[in-house]
Amino acid sequence: MTSANGTLAESASAATPLAAGFADPVHDAQGAFRTIMNAMARPGTQHALDTGRLTPPAPLTPLAATIALTLFDYDTPVWLDKPLMASDAVKQFLRFHTGAPIVSEPVEAAFALVSAPVTMIPLASFNQGSAEYPDRSTTVILTGQSFEDGPMVMFEGPGIKDTILFKSGPVPPVFWDQVIANNRQFPRGIDLIFAGGDKLAALPRSTRITLQEG
Fold it and tell me: Strand order in 164-166's β-sheet?
């Protein structure tokens, strides 16, 4: 039996088809979660992430959608940058598949999705956590990244044997200065995920960073 509301919903769905989520939500999310956690445990290393057949609405990439469907839920407010926020299809996709509330203030976000990193807002705008609850800081996800671009930086700290060289772009000219200032707050400060193509890398706030010359 179809209600009037159901008929309206079906008509709306037919007019604006909703992109599908994970084919096997439990299995796909578990596999992606392991990959993301491995990246967090080994800062600066690249990890391939299977995006399956996800075809999210632009400018949300399949890799960003995979990360979102894995990490976002009803208890994780999400902030979107201007290009993502301007897309009703992106907001509908994220709300339907994750249940995460979308917030307008970056300081309120558990996660932030950035599709245009070159014009992104300052990292200090996001929730930095507190001395009592440093884990409540924002995790910022930069999409559309290439691990062949950008200035070279050196990481050291937990999860890294000696040091590791890393680069990712595009990012704003002041980006790494902001990241260095952010990580000096440890245990406060944001965490970062870099996502491009089918690979991701992570930079937790515990990592120490040095800009390389040249």
Answer: 164-166, 153-156, 208-211
Which of 126, 122, 115, 128 is CA-nearest to residue 81?
A: 115
Element (H, E) at 114: strand 111-114
Catalogue the long-range contacts made by 150-156 (C-beta closer than 8 Å, 24 or more residues apart).
151/176, 151/211, 151/212, 152/211, 152/212, 152/214, 153/209, 153/210, 153/211, 153/212, 154/209, 154/210, 154/211, 154/212, 155/43, 155/44, 155/203, 155/207, 155/208, 155/209, 156/207, 156/208, 156/210
Secondary element (H or E) of residue 78: strand 78-80
The tens digit of pLDDT for each residue in 105-152 reads 999 999 999 999 999 999 999 999 999 999 999 999 999 999 999 999
Closest by CA to 94, choosing from 116, 108, 112, 106, is: 112
CA 13 to the chain's CA centroid = 27
Q: Over the stretch 179-191, which tens digit does the pLDDT of each residue have?
A: 999 999 999 999 9
Query: Which parts of the chain have pLDDT scores under 50?
Result: 1-15
| Gap between the Cα atoms of 83 and 88, Å rounded | 10
Q: Which amino acid is residue 207, in one-letter code?
A: T
The CATH-assigned architecture of domain 20-211 is: 3-Layer(aba) Sandwich (3.40)
Query: Using CA atoms, how far apart are residues 136 and 177, in angstroms rounded to an integer?
Result: 23
Strands 191-196 and 164-166: unpaired
Ordered by start, the domain boundaries in the chain are 20-211
Model's pTM, two decimal places?
Answer: 0.91
